[in-house]
Amino acid sequence: MPAPPDPVGLRSPAHVAFFHRVFAHRAASSMRGLRMALWGQPDVADDRPVVIFANHPSWWDGVMFVLLAKALFPGRPMFVPMEAGAFARYGFMKRIGAWGVGQESPRAALGFLRTARTILQTPAHTLWINAPGRFVDVRTRPQPMVAGLVRLPELAGDAVFLPLALEYPFWAEPRAEMLFAFGPGLAGRDLAVLDRPARAAAMAAALHATMDRLAEDALSRDPARFTTLARGREGLGGPYDLWRRLKARVRGAQFDARHDPEAG
Description:
Keywords: Acyltransferase, Transferase
Structural class: alpha/beta
Number of strands: 9
Protein name: 1-acyl-sn-glycerol-3-phosphate acyltransferase
Low-confidence stretches: none
CATH superfamily of the largest domain: Glycerol-3-phosphate (1)-acyltransferase
Oligomer: single chain
Shape: globular
Helix content: 25-40%
Order of helices and strands: HHEEHEHEHEHEEEHHEH
GO molecular function: acyltransferase activity
Mean pLDDT: 91
CATH class of the largest domain: Alpha Beta
Number of helices: 9
CATH architecture of the largest domain: 3-Layer(aba) Sandwich
Organism: Humitalea rosea
Number of domains: 2
């Protein structure tokens, strides 16, 4: 029998720091900005392990996890279960806190729970999970809740379960916004006393409420509703923006690459 995964032992702070820089550069070059809803700051005690359960609309979710862990949970190691096939394609992930999880068998589910329980025995640890277990559009209701996540409160009563809404709309610029918000935390002990169908419903309701509120802010297209944690590239780039920059310099004007400067 193969040894169980050990994401805690394999995690390397040096690898985490390096790949954070890689992901931050990728986000800055491809997306417009990383923005948190003003009401969406995470509120958790430092002495409790945290399970962050998010929707899963995009490939960018994993990048978001890395960026948000660094920005909002500094000093708290991040761990992420990944679908086994995807995990196998990204060998470096085992060095930044990820491990592979199969989705087809009770044995795989049991393995996930054992590893997650070990991770959450340390109060400083954070466990980040895409609740549906697969890509699901932000407009889909209800959002699926994978069985392993629903069972986790039974093994981690001390943990806080924190819903995280993610959305990537296009506003007035060529690149998408990276929007997010955390909802109020759910105590693991309170979830554990519910039967599993009721627990799944409670967790889904918390995630839906957070997603719906973030959607209202996204629809407003108003950057004032958000705290901007990082900005990406503006404008079209390339020869066209170089020409615009030169024209502005000749005229003695300040160059602004944005399509709509009034849009923030």
